[in-house]
């Protein structure tokens, strides 16, 4: 991880939990999803992956854990969180009542075919180990189980000012990766056209951001992380990268 990625995924993750706890439980999921997929993107995946109550759902690169808890609330699945950054693991443990394991998605500490389904949101674009990450998901998910992805893909030549450490695949590379990993792409949709979060969700997310700014605005880690998300926002708004939702399955 680079300094910028540590700031964003470790230090600020932990601060986010601190702020959310102070604000109260209604803020946990929006806080835990900051910088991730919108509720509509998560619901799209939950539906297309056909998740059902009681199924285990591995979240590889779970961050602060908001998306996994959203799935648990929507579909009564049993999330299992894997995340390499210690600060994010502690944040997820403080906010949500789901098991959290500190590990890399490219070396999952679980037996073959041990979970019903898995998802990996906003992670493939932050690691060079894309093939290993997908292979590990294929290995641990039961046959016919779904693997959901949110991936930010490069749509053209990227400007110099990209977020530090990000390595956006092209759509072609993503297709090739799925193929070489032995996974079928069952469905694929751009996230752009989906409904925006409710006003209530947006207000809560903004309150968390404002509180973080108030409490930690002078800290270098906050400034570095904010610069990362500003650069990411610019790439998306200028159309250089786009969020893509995919459901993969073992043939
Ligand atoms: C943009 S955040 C997304 C977090 C979470 N999935 C979400 O949607 O809110 C990317 C996450 O990927 C994690 N990550 C980076 N490299 C990883 C790897 N090799 N295996 C698993 N997670 C990784 C980071 O620590 C970070 O928490």
From TrEMBL:
Organism domain of life: Bacteria
Short name of one Pfam family: Methyltransf_11
GO biological process: methylation
InterPro entries from the UniProt entry: Methyltransf_11, SAM-dependent_MTases_sf
Residue span, Methyltransferase type domain: 58-147
Keywords: Methyltransferase, Transferase
Protein's UniProt keywords contain Methyltransferase: yes
GO molecular function: S-adenosylmethionine-dependent methyltransferase activity
The name this protein goes by in its record: SAM-dependent methyltransferase
Organism the protein comes from: Mycolicibacterium sediminis
């Amino acid at each position: 991880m680079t300094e910028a990625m540590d700031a964003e995924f470790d230090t600020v993750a932990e601060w986010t939990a601190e702020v959310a706890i102070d604000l109260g439980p209604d803020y946990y999921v929006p806080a835990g999803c900051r910088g991730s997929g919108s509720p509509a993107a998560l619901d799209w995946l939950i539906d297309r992956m056909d998740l059902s109550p009681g199924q285990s759902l591995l979240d590889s690169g779970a961050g602060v854990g908001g998306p996994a808890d959203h799935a648990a609330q929507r579909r009564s699945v049993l999330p299992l969180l894997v995340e390499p950054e210690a600060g994010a693991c502690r944040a997820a443990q403080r906010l949500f009542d789901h098991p959290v394991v500190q590990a890399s998605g490219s070396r999952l500490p679980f037996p073959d075919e041990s979970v019903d389904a898995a998802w990996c949101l906003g992670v493939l674009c932050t690691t060079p180990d894309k093939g290993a990450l997908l292979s590990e998901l294929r290995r641990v998910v039961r046959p016919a189980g779904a693997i959901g992805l949110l991936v930010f893909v490069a749509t053209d030549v990227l400007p110099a000012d990209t977020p530090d450490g990000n390595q956006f695949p092209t759509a072609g590379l993503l297709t090739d990766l799925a193929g070489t990993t032995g996974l079928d792409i069952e469905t694929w949709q751009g996230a752009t056209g989906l409904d925006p979060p409710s006003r209530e969700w947006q207000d809560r997310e903004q309150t968390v951001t404002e509180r973080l700014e108030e409490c930690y605005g002078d800290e270098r880690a906050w400034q570095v992380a904010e610069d990362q998300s500003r650069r990411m926002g610019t790439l998306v708004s200028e159309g250089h990268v786009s969020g893509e939702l995919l459901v993969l399955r073992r043939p």
